[in-house]
Amino acid sequence: MLSKTIAAALNSQVQMEAESSQAYLAMASWADIQPGLQGVCAFFYKQSDEERVHMLKLIAFINERGGFGVVPPLEQPILTFKSLRSAFSEFLKHELKVSNSINDIVHLALSEKDYATHNFLQWYVTEQMEEERLARVLNEKLELIGEDKSGLYLFDRDIMAYRGPE
Ligand code: OFO
């Protein structure tokens, strides 16, 4: 059975995952109307779908452990970006924020001796390590590419491959 504190923390994580999904959906839609960014667009649609799955896993866990998974109201995310670089730097910033939040709940679960929640959250810890790595790699690549058009072309063409195997 979840304590009230843990249930509240997990529900605020539900909100964060839902906001991540919205944020990446907005990035996908923005990329969709930029010339030649079909790869980036597909990448963010996929990221958005994954964040929704993260949210659903949390809701299922909260309910299974005797809490109530609350579907949250959502803020409108950032809709437009001044460059590809700035969209990807938002992506990294967002992932770092999510990692911090997961770490806080892991800490809370340990301090309450809630080992079931602690165990459940390990999947998110691993996922965040991967997402942070991916966001960092993509930011580094964009840094290298700068304004080089053929570099950007290849970045867009190859971006799905950086996600690694499903
Ligand atoms: Fe939910 O995985 Fe990143 O944010």
Automatic annotation (TrEMBL):
<dbReference type="GO" id="GO:0006826">
    <property type="term" value="P:iron ion transport"/>
</dbReference>
<feature type="binding site">
    <location>
        <position position="95"/>
    </location>
    <ligand>
        <name>Fe cation</name>
    </ligand>
</feature>
<keyword id="KW-0963">Cytoplasm</keyword>
<dbReference type="Pfam" id="PF00210">
    <property type="entry name" value="Ferritin"/>
</dbReference>
<dbReference type="InterPro" id="IPR009040">
    <property type="entry name" value="Ferritin-like_diiron"/>
</dbReference>
<feature type="binding site">
    <location>
        <position position="17"/>
    </location>
    <ligand>
        <name>Fe cation</name>
    </ligand>
</feature>
<keyword id="KW-0560">Oxidoreductase</keyword>
<dbReference type="GO" id="GO:0006879">
    <property type="term" value="P:intracellular iron ion homeostasis"/>
</dbReference>
<feature type="binding site">
    <location>
        <position position="128"/>
    </location>
    <ligand>
        <name>Fe cation</name>
    </ligand>
</feature>
<dbReference type="InterPro" id="IPR009078">
    <property type="entry name" value="Ferritin-like_SF"/>
</dbReference>
<feature type="binding site">
    <location>
        <position position="51"/>
    </location>
    <ligand>
        <name>Fe cation</name>
    </ligand>
</feature>
<comment type="similarity">
    <text>Belongs to the ferritin family. Prokaryotic subfamily.</text>
</comment>
<feature type="binding site">
    <location>
        <position position="54"/>
    </location>
    <ligand>
        <name>Fe cation</name>
    </ligand>
</feature>
<dbReference type="InterPro" id="IPR012347">
    <property type="entry name" value="Ferritin-like"/>
</dbReference>
<protein>
    <recommendedName>
        <fullName>Ferritin</fullName>
        <ecNumber>1.16.3.2</ecNumber>
    </recommendedName>
</protein>
<keyword id="KW-0408">Iron</keyword>
<dbReference type="InterPro" id="IPR001519">
    <property type="entry name" value="Ferritin"/>
</dbReference>
<feature type="domain" description="Ferritin-like diiron">
    <location>
        <begin position="1"/>
        <end position="146"/>
    </location>
</feature>
<comment type="function">
    <text>Iron-storage protein.</text>
</comment>
<keyword id="KW-0479">Metal-binding</keyword>
<dbReference type="GO" id="GO:0008198">
    <property type="term" value="F:ferrous iron binding"/>
</dbReference>
<dbReference type="InterPro" id="IPR008331">
    <property type="entry name" value="Ferritin_DPS_dom"/>
</dbReference>
<dbReference type="GO" id="GO:0042802">
    <property type="term" value="F:identical protein binding"/>
</dbReference>
<dbReference type="GO" id="GO:0008199">
    <property type="term" value="F:ferric iron binding"/>
</dbReference>
<dbReference type="GO" id="GO:0016491">
    <property type="term" value="F:oxidoreductase activity"/>
</dbReference>
<comment type="function">
    <text>May alleviate iron toxicity in the presence of oxygen.</text>
</comment>
<keyword id="KW-0409">Iron storage</keyword>
<dbReference type="InterPro" id="IPR041719">
    <property type="entry name" value="Ferritin_prok"/>
</dbReference>
<dbReference type="GO" id="GO:0005737">
    <property type="term" value="C:cytoplasm"/>
</dbReference>
